[in-house]
Amino acid sequence: MIGDCYIKYLCLTLCMVVCGAAGMGPDRVQSPDTMENDVAIIPQPLEMKRTKGSFPLSDGVIVSYRDAGAENSVAFLKNYLRQYYGLALQERRSAPHRSAITLNISEKPQAPKGAYELKVSPEYIEITGYNEEGLFYGVQSLLQLLPVCKSGAAAGGDTASDATAPVLQIPCVRLKDAPRFEYRGMHLDVVRHIFPVSYIKQYIDYIALHKMNYFHWHLTDDQGWRMESRSHPRLNELGAYREGTIIGLFPGKGIDSTRYGGFYTIEQMKEIVDYAARRYITVVPEIDVPGHCMAVLAAYPEFGTEPDKPVKPAVTWGIYNRQNNVLAPGEKVFRFLEDVFNELMDVFPGEYIHIGADECAHRWWEESAATQRFMEEHGLKDTKQLQEYFARRVSDVVTARGRTVIGWDEMVDNGLVDGAVVMSWRNEKGAYRAMKQGHRAIMAPAAYSYLNIKQKEKEDTLCHKSRTVSLEKVYGFEPLPDSISVADPSLLMGGEGCMWTEYFPHKERLEYGLFPRMSAIAEVYWSDRKARDWHRFLQKLPSQFARYDLWGANYCTWIFEEKRSDSQ
Q1: Catalytic residue among 132, 221, 358, 549
Q2: Threshold 0.85, pTM exceeds
C-alpha cells in the first residue's frame, strides 16, 4: 500500500528547509518529531484546538448513529478504514455508545451547508453535522487525523494482508468548521483523453476527500463526443473516435495513426452520478456549443456552415480559429440541441448544465451566406447577437426543466441570457463583470486554476511552455480581494480547478499535474480568508504527500526541490 516512513521523514526535512527559506524564522520552524504529531488538515478548518491525549482506533471499534442521513458518511468512513488500514468497524444504529465513534446530524437551518463540529477525546469521537453534508465533511477531517505511518504490524506493509491490524492513535482535537463558498469544484476533460469509469470514481473520491462538492465533466469537444446519444447515434459511431493524435506539444511533431476514442454509456453515466451523490458531489455535465463542435460535424456535417464539406474529429489541439467547428443557426440544429440536452438532463439530475459558449470563431458565420440570411430574418445585427441567440435557445431547453445554465465567460462579451451563471476562465474579471450585471459567477481563471499548465520552470511535460501556474500562485489567489467592489459579493458562488487532458494520456501524468495544486484550490474555496496561511500550508504538505502515497496517487514535489535549491 505504502512504503516505510522514510519518504515522509524526508518530506518533513525538506519542509523545514522550505519554511526557513520562506523567512519563517526559528520560532516558527518545527522539528520533524514535533511535526510528526501535528494536526495537518486540508483545507484549514475555521476553528481548531489541539487538546491532550489521543483516541486509540482499532479493529472492532463501534461507529454509532441514529439518523438515516448519516448512512453515507458511515459507509465512507468504514470503507476508507478497511481499504487503507485493514480496520473493520462495527456499525450500530443506536444512541451514542461508550468508546465509540458517534455520528450525529443536528439540523440548524441557519448554518451553512457543510458546517460541522468534531471532537476527539481519549474516550470517544463525536462528529456533529448541521446537515448531511456537514457530517460527511466532518468524517473527512477525522480521516486526516489518522497517522499515515501506522504503528503495529501494519506499518510499511499491505494492510489487507497483515495478520494483526494496527492501533491508530488519533490526536485529540476540537473543530468547528464551515465552508466559505458554496461551490467548490474540480473539472475533468475526458475528450482529449478518456478515462475508465473506475478512474472517474477515483477522481470523485479525490474531490470528496478535499471537501469539494462539484464535478464538472467536460463531455464534448472537437476531438470527440463522449456521452451516449440514442437520439443521434452517429455521434457515437462517427463523432466519438479520432483517426490519430498529435505527437508532442502543440504544434507537434506530426500525427500518430492510432484510432482513439470511446464514450460513456447512459448506464455508466448514471452510475457515476449515483457514486458522486453518495459523496455529496453534484455532477455538472458539459456539452460545448456552438463552437468546439468538430465531433458533431463529423457525424452531421449538415449542421455546419459548410454542409457539403466532410469533417472529421480533430486530431490536434487549439484549432478553433483555423478549422470550421461551428454550428450553423437553423431549426434542424436547434432541434438537435434540444434532443441532446434533454438526453443529458435525463441522466444528470443536478441543477447546473454547462453549455460551453466559449471560443466560438465568428468568422465562419460571417463567411456563410445562409447564416447571414438567418441573422437578417431574426433581426440579429452582428455575430455577437447570434451567439447570444444560440445561448438563449439552449437556455430555454434547460430552464424548461427547472435547471440552470452555466457558460464560460465569453457569454459576458456576447450578451448574458437571463439566469445564466458565468464560469470565468480567461481571468477573474469576467466573474466581476457578470456579478455587476446581477449574475452569479464561478471562478476558474486559467492563471490560477488550470492544472494542465506547467507548475515549474523548465518543464516540458505539461502544456503552455510560456506560462506557469505554480503551487504558490494557486494558493495565493483571492477570489474576492478588497480592491474589488461589487454590490452583492454573495453572487460569487465559489470556484473550481480545471484539468484539461491534451497532454495527460494516463492517470500518473494527470495526477502529477493535479497534486498538490488541487489541495491548494480546496483551501482557497473552503477556508475563511483569515484562516489561510501559505507557510502553514507548506508545513502541512508533508502529511498531505503521505496521504497521496496512501491513496496510490502520483504528485509533484517541486515546491520542496525548488526551495531546497534556493536555500543552498
Answers
A1: 221
A2: yes
